[in-house]
Amino acid sequence: MVIQDIQTGRISLPLRHPFKTALRTVDAVEDVVVRVIADTGETGYGEAPPTAVITGDTLGSIECAVRDFIRPALLGMEIENLDGIMKKLHGCILKNTSAKAAVDMAVYDLYGKRLGAPVYQLLGGARKRVETDLTISVNPIEEMVADALEAVGRGYRILKIKVGKEGRGDVERIAAIRSAVGPDILLRVDANQGWNARQSVSIISAMEDKGLDIELVEQPVKAHDIEGMKYITRRVQTPILADESVFSPADAVEIIRQRAADFINIKLMKTGGIHEALKICDVAEIYGVECMIGCMLESRLSVAAAAHLAAGRSVITRADLDGPSLCSVDPYEGGPVFDEAAISMTGDPGIGVGNLPCAEWR
């Protein structure tokens, strides 16, 4: 099975509600999709969101990276030569991790189809079911409480609350949500780099003093502020999750070496795909550090690839794979089944998702 062509297209899927964080507001999934076509006629699919505020990638830069750099490097390569493909993929252009991730997952999709097995089994087959949280966007407190109650009514037992815009006012947000949903719902707090180190300690300590029982706080400070995150981690009881600070296996090693965070958040759009994400899993296993698997604003196509990784590796103990649940429509067929909080793996070979709503391929 040889790579005969690599093409890009675009998809647009509306969200149930506007997605609001400390960094941005988005109304729809507007992503680049990729298909890798083999000489056998088999096709593998991938997806990349333009998350410029985090990865630096835009729609145009993703398409350019795939068309002008990645495609020429990979044409003619054997799908069975997975390591060789990944070496060329990550060596043909610097950064552009979202473009690499889309091609990576399309190659893994073909690789699984070639072997007649779902990708999660090829990655270790740790479990067949994954439970995800649901994100509650930054809004006025009353709206956030209503959104949290709606999520619980849909069956979600874990909520990720976006904060980071109002400093100590965020404590009031979390307190109101905790009061509304009760003690049995897990609450994760994501500041999206919205606080500084001293402010973080003050806010997290206030949540602890109020007994809000927060499972973890995600990326409280700027991505580059490793010293600040270490300062926080050493001064609060609530576990700290490093997200934007970790793109590569080397980043993970540094975070763990400095004990700057308790957990690592893996996202395929930061790592450049499954292949490099597996290296972070290996690092985390060596050091005994648990990982979360997350996603950007992605549809079920690429979130399915992340779900395969989560189901494949036991070091991934938490999932934030709510992209499909945030979309108001799901046009795809096959692959993992997303039923609100429950993600169930199937026997479909590869990643398994098809029927892309893309009118034009280039």
Automatic annotation (TrEMBL):
<dbReference type="GO" id="GO:0000287">
    <property type="term" value="F:magnesium ion binding"/>
</dbReference>
<feature type="binding site">
    <location>
        <position position="297"/>
    </location>
    <ligand>
        <name>substrate</name>
    </ligand>
</feature>
<feature type="domain" description="Mandelate racemase/muconate lactonizing enzyme C-terminal">
    <location>
        <begin position="141"/>
        <end position="239"/>
    </location>
</feature>
<dbReference type="Pfam" id="PF13378">
    <property type="entry name" value="MR_MLE_C"/>
</dbReference>
<protein>
    <recommendedName>
        <fullName>Dipeptide epimerase</fullName>
        <ecNumber>5.1.1.-</ecNumber>
    </recommendedName>
</protein>
<dbReference type="InterPro" id="IPR013342">
    <property type="entry name" value="Mandelate_racemase_C"/>
</dbReference>
<keyword id="KW-0479">Metal-binding</keyword>
<dbReference type="InterPro" id="IPR013341">
    <property type="entry name" value="Mandelate_racemase_N_dom"/>
</dbReference>
<dbReference type="InterPro" id="IPR034603">
    <property type="entry name" value="Dipeptide_epimerase"/>
</dbReference>
<feature type="binding site">
    <location>
        <position position="320"/>
    </location>
    <ligand>
        <name>substrate</name>
    </ligand>
</feature>
<dbReference type="GO" id="GO:0016855">
    <property type="term" value="F:racemase and epimerase activity, acting on amino acids and derivatives"/>
</dbReference>
<dbReference type="InterPro" id="IPR029065">
    <property type="entry name" value="Enolase_C-like"/>
</dbReference>
<feature type="binding site">
    <location>
        <position position="295"/>
    </location>
    <ligand>
        <name>substrate</name>
    </ligand>
</feature>
<comment type="similarity">
    <text>Belongs to the mandelate racemase/muconate lactonizing enzyme family.</text>
</comment>
<feature type="active site" description="Proton acceptor; specific for (S)-substrate epimerization">
    <location>
        <position position="267"/>
    </location>
</feature>
<feature type="binding site">
    <location>
        <position position="24"/>
    </location>
    <ligand>
        <name>substrate</name>
    </ligand>
</feature>
<feature type="binding site">
    <location>
        <position position="218"/>
    </location>
    <ligand>
        <name>Mg(2+)</name>
    </ligand>
</feature>
<feature type="binding site">
    <location>
        <position position="243"/>
    </location>
    <ligand>
        <name>Mg(2+)</name>
    </ligand>
</feature>
<dbReference type="GO" id="GO:0006518">
    <property type="term" value="P:peptide metabolic process"/>
</dbReference>
<feature type="binding site">
    <location>
        <position position="135"/>
    </location>
    <ligand>
        <name>substrate</name>
    </ligand>
</feature>
<keyword id="KW-0460">Magnesium</keyword>
<feature type="active site" description="Proton acceptor; specific for (R)-substrate epimerization">
    <location>
        <position position="162"/>
    </location>
</feature>
<dbReference type="InterPro" id="IPR029017">
    <property type="entry name" value="Enolase-like_N"/>
</dbReference>
<dbReference type="InterPro" id="IPR036849">
    <property type="entry name" value="Enolase-like_C_sf"/>
</dbReference>
<feature type="binding site">
    <location>
        <position position="190"/>
    </location>
    <ligand>
        <name>Mg(2+)</name>
    </ligand>
</feature>
<keyword id="KW-0413">Isomerase</keyword>
<feature type="binding site">
    <location>
        <position position="322"/>
    </location>
    <ligand>
        <name>substrate</name>
    </ligand>
</feature>
<feature type="binding site">
    <location>
        <position position="160"/>
    </location>
    <ligand>
        <name>substrate</name>
    </ligand>
</feature>
<dbReference type="Pfam" id="PF02746">
    <property type="entry name" value="MR_MLE_N"/>
</dbReference>
